[in-house]
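Work Package 3 (structural annotation) set out to generate three-dimensional models for the target panel prioritized at the project kickoff. During this period the team completed the workflow that converts sequence records into discrete structure tokens, so that structures can be stored uniformly alongside our sequence database. As a representative example, we reproduce one entry of 146 residues exactly as it appears in the project archive.
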Amino acid sequence: MTEFEILELNSQSYINNGMYMVALAVLIFIALRAARVTNESGGNMAAKIITSVFGVFVAFFSLQLAGWRVLFDTNTAARLAEIQESGVDLSIQGQAWLQNSGVTSSDFLLDPPMFADIPSVLLTLVILLMILGTTWGPRIKIAADS
């Protein structure tokens, strides 16, 4: 596999991940909307539990997508390191990728690490807190109710 093919595979992986990110944005909207509707309508315990479970699944999906991004970048760097060790001269971009990642050819990942991307973990926690806080928090007053 050439350097171009390795970087092209990484690019295609990010395109797929981007499509799932669009789905994640829709799921986050649905989860937040369900939490608000459950809260405003004074939803019963079953509705709150179902909304909470859905919110947890959305958070899990978010962490999975972040893990896949880490896997893509790590494995791209590992493949670049493999071809460099076999004697192929890498471009400046390929050398920079290896230097910035600090990955060696033996660092190839088989499973996506769910908690490796700290900013994504923090964003997911904030979203999950918003969903659960809205679902289980004090009832939101609608202007028409006043």
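The mean pLDDT is 93.
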